[in-house]
Design brief:
The protein has helices at 2-6, 29-42, 112-146; strands spanning 21-22, 53-59, 63-69, 75-90, 93-107. By secondary structure, it is of the alpha+beta class. Strands 1, 2, 3, 4 and 5 form a five-stranded mixed beta sheet that branches.
Length: 150
Amino acid sequence: MFLLLSGCGFVPMYSERNTDIYVPPIQNGANGIELRNALNAKFGGQKEANAPYVLEISLKDPTTKYKALDKTGVATWQEITLSASYTLKANNKVIARGTETSSESYSFVNYLVAANASYNNAVNNTIIVLSEKIGNRAIAEVYKHSHGDK
């Protein structure tokens, strides 16, 4: 299939790995650190602050809401939501901005250790999805910018 597409000038967006994107530290404690690490991994490793592209992230605190209650009114299922706004700059000029949101439901139990583990797993999974959404958008915008498509 790829051989057929290569003759028409098709070039996969990820083929050049032009992801020289610096992600400054993200506020919001461990969640900000995890999001930054996930984005850096997606971009092929941490870049220097003088990289041609800078992706600034503003991460909100996670929110939770009850999704299910048992017969006694005790919560048994919750949903965590994380939201992040981003600005992608090339030479201090904004080339893209937006907001992405991700959520995941998790089992909420009465045992503190199990409840914390379930919550932390949901937060980590939500951060991974958020990094994929923001990272894919940033890569697409860098590709578009570097190839002169406006």
